[in-house]
Amino acid sequence: KQKEIRQVDEKWVDTLLNNPKIVGTKGKLGRNNAIYTLSLAYYASGIDQDECFDVMDEFNSNLKMPLKNQDVVRTVKSAYSGRFPGANKEKVLILLENWGSESLSEDQLFTQKFNGWYKHKKDRSERKRSHVGEWKADILEYLEAQCYRYRPEIELTKSELQAAVQYQDKPIPKRSLDKALNELKAEGKIYVEVKAGRGGGLVVATRKALIRTVIVVNQHVKKAYKNAIRTFFKEAAILTKMLETPETGKKIGLFGEQTNLWDTG
User: How far is Cα 70 from Cα 74, in angstroms, rounded to an integer?
Assistant: First the structure.
């Protein structure tokens, strides 16, 4: 029977676990990354999360400058989230190089000959460009912060929106903004109306803000609010229709009909 190949059986795992000098240094992979990478190796090897935590807790306790217990718990839990299927060889080599293991060759550190290494996508902070999905999340976060309880729509120009949505002090590129807005509209997560002419711009509301306002507005302002939605957002007619649902008869009501809209992303 062929021997089972496990990342945790590699020499580099013991090399890192037995190095108490690893610390946290700005711009250098340190304690958190070591625990995360080691935990990924345990995860890929099918080892129980509790057992992994016991090993990482002991490793952390032996460090000259250990992390707080909650940081170790959070890091192990993140490694076992399933986001990555195992440790990344590139990160392993950087950790080994940073913390005094240059004397060991790759053949000594990686004794099992297999192609089970996993290439992890770079974090956003490590990339020059953000993905459209990340910009979409930024746009939704900004709009949610601007949408008031009784006035979920906001008016602004596209330039103002572009300047407001930033990551690391850099505004969203115009092409990324257009693409993100079009995708969010197609997904039904935002409603956008273009106001033409001088002094024009955009009227924007998130689906989440519209639903929230429909629920909380007082009965005597619902008619006016319903008309406002129809005026600004023709696509939002389904929300105004929910207001007209009879309270008697089928006990569906506003909450029942909107259930499928609550996954607002």
Answer: 6
3-state secondary structure at position 150: coil
Residue 52: which of 32, 29, 79 has the closest Cα? 79
3-state secondary structure 216-265: HCCHHHHHHHHHHHHHHCHHHHHHHHHHCCCCCCCCCHHHHHHHHHCCCC
Band of pLDDT at residue 74, cut at 50, 70 and 90: very high
Tell me the pLDDT tens digit for each residue of 88-132: 888 888 888 888 655 666 666 776 655 455 555 567 777 778 888
CA distance linking residue 176 with residue 14, whole number of Å: 45
How many CB atoms within 10 Å of residue 233? 22
| 2 in a structural domain | no
| 168 and 101 inside one domain | no
Residue-wise pLDDT for 16-71, tens only, equals 999 898 887 777 788 999 999 999 999 988 899 999 999 999 999 999 999 999 99
Q: Is 31 found in the same domain as 74?
A: yes
Does residue 155 fall inside a structural domain? yes
Does residue 211 sit in the same domain as residue 96? no
Range of the domain at 33: 7-118
Strand partners, 25: 28
Chosen domain end from 76, 91, 118? 118
Contacts of 171 (CB under 8 A, 6+ apart): 162, 163, 165
pTM over 0.85: no
